[in-house]
Design brief:
By secondary structure, this protein is an alpha/beta fold. Helices cover 45% and strands 19% of the residues. It has 15 helices and 11 strands. Strands 7-6-8-5-9 form a 5-stranded mixed β-sheet, with helices on both faces. The protein has a 4-stranded antiparallel β-sheet with strand order 3-10-4-11. Strands 1-2 form a two-stranded parallel ribbon. Helix 4 runs antiparallel to helix 12. It starts with 10 loop residues before the first helix and ends in a 17-residue tail after the last helix. The N terminus is likely disordered.
């Protein structure tokens, strides 16, 4: 890929160091950590969830709420939400306290647009399975075949970012491809009906679509992209983080504990996710085989923040984000 040498974070380079953070969780008393410093104006936290991912499993499994209950914190779950952007709107509008652990790209876009949001922590999960898919028999088998075609993506989100990166890698001008901005619930039927020619999407939607619509990958993030520019993130408002640092720390740690459990109990986690997502046993078994691992990064992790800043710069340079943003200005002070 051209023009990426200065913005080419290595997954292996920081994932190796991330293992320390996960390993340290085993001996950490979450309630003691949350009480290390004062700072809480509410005993209720309103959390968003979707039909996939860690928040779904946390909600369904029930242990997350028990952990926070030890600190006298009650959890209210709001959802389901189709993707990260609407949860950011809910937080900004005051109906929720945390976004649901989604893409950093729409989070940065919302911040640039003026939303008073701050990051509370970050997640990296492997393997990365976001893909651009097209229906079998469509004649679209490689990125170059997208010239003159339409691709469904979520605006300023992981779908749009992956398509931009794929076109750049294969030296296809963006103007030669029609970007169709659709949220996942609308993009799936658009691909099925032929209203769009391809779809850039993450799991489990992309995995379900491959089976239901007889589709195939033309670009797979973990296989075809040499760097990572989009991460998973949690956000709240700056005021909520300022007023409730102890609560934010407690929520962060409860999510870390949930991620640790999922990483160590992949099979059980995927059965929980399937029940709520209502997808086939074949898709579930594919996820079990992936054996996904979740690794967390704190907002004071300078190395990670440096990589995220490179990502933000890359996205701004390619107009996925409308303008540059300084990540360190939008971190919760915990």
């Amino acid at each position: 890929m051209s023009d990426t040498s200065s913005a080419k974070p290595s997954r292996r380079s920081f994932l190796g160091s991330a293992a320390f953070g996960i390993g340290a969780l085993a001996g950490m008393n979450i309630s003691e950590f949350a009480q290390a410093a004062p700072g809480r104006t509410t005993d209720t936290v309103r959390l968003t969830w979707g039909l996939s991912g860690l928040n779904l499993i946390a909600k369904e499994r029930g242990e997350f709420e028990k952990v926070l209950a030890k600190d006298g914190i009650k959890v209210e779950w709001l959802g389901p939400f189709p993707n990260h952007a609407p949860t950011l709107q809910a937080v900004t509008g005051g109906s929720a306290d945390f976004s649901f652990g989604g893409s950093t790209t729409p989070a940065l876009a919302a911040i640039i647009a003026g939303s008073p949001l701050v990051f509370t922590q970050f997640v990296v999960y492997e393997p990365r399975t976001t893909a651009i898919i097209a229906k079998d028999g469509s004649g679209i088998d490689r990125i170059e075949d997208l010239v003159g075609k339409s691709v469904a993506v979520n605006r300023s989100g992981l779908g749009e970012f992956l398509l931009v990166a794929a076109l750049e890698k294969h030296k296809v001008d963006r103007s030669a491809v029609k970007f169709v901005y659709l949220n996942p619930p609308d993009a799936a039927p658009a691909l099925a009906s032929g209203k769009v020619d391809a779809w850039s999407m993450w799991s489990p939607g992309v995995d379900i679509a491959r089976l239901e619509y007889k589709a195939h990958d033309i670009f797979l993030e973990g296989r075809d992209l040499e760097f990572q520019i989009d991460y998973t993130s949690y956000l709240t408002t700056r005021k909520f983080a300022t007023d409730n640092p102890a609560l934010v720390r407690a929520v962060n740690d409860a999510f870390r504990a949930e991620g640790k459990w999922i990483s160590e109990n992949s099979r059980d986690a995927e059965y929980i996710a399937q029940k709520a997502g209502k997808y086939s046993d074949q898709v579930r078994d594919q996820f079990i085989a992936m054996n996904r691992k979740y690794r967390y990064f704190a907002v004071n992790d300078e190395r990670f923040i440096s990589e995220l800043q490179k990502a933000a710069d890359w996205l701004a340079a390619r107009k996925v984000l409308p303008e540059p943003v300084k990540v360190t200005d939008h971190l919760a002070q915990l």
